[in-house]
Design goal:
single chain, alpha+beta, 2 domains, 2 helices, 5 strands, 25% strand, binds zinc ion
């Protein structure tokens, strides 16, 4: 009896599944993230989203008792660490004024610390002098000048 050759090989259709997930590029402006302490892309969002104050939607603001300080605020979210923070945009003259004030305050602090140290030493010397005078006054031979 002749043998029958039967092809049993069935070709299965190959399923192609796309698993590649498209990641969107981080949104925003590259700026300094205070949490990462590096420049990262930070998305601009409403300040109310960051502060959780529903009435904090105005971007243009003034500081109480300092009408000359006009700010433009933005909420920011770091694309890397998701840290949320608020930035203020101000006239650059205000930043230079801040730098000068910081430097002046630093010198005042140094002088005040030196004054405090020197006045403590002077106070101890005056106290010793006063004690010496008390000893002299206790002597029978002491005559006030
Ligand atoms: Zn960050």
């Amino acid at each position: 009896m002749p043998r029958l050759k039967v092809k049993t090989k069935i070709k299965r259709p190959r399923l192609k599944v796309k698993t590649k997930i498209k990641r969107s590029k981080p949104k925003g402006t590259k700026m300094f993230c205070p949490s990462c302490e590096e420049h990262r892309k930070c998305e601009a969002v409403s300040v109310a989203k960051i502060s959780c104050k529903t009435d904090d939607y105005e971007q243009r603001k003034y500081i109480d008792k300092h009408d000359d300080i006009k700010i433009f605020q933005r909420g920011r979210i770091c694309s890397r660490c998701q840290h949320e923070f608020i930035t203020y945009e101000v006239d650059s003259d205000l930043i230079w004024e801040l730098v000068e004030l910081r430097e002046s305050l630093s010198k005042i602090k140094q002088h005040a610390e030196k004054y405090k140290s020197e006045s403590n030493k002077a106070s101890k010397s005056l106290s010793k002098l006063s004690n010496s005078l008390n000893i002299l006054q206790a002597l029978k031979i002491y005559k006030s000048s």
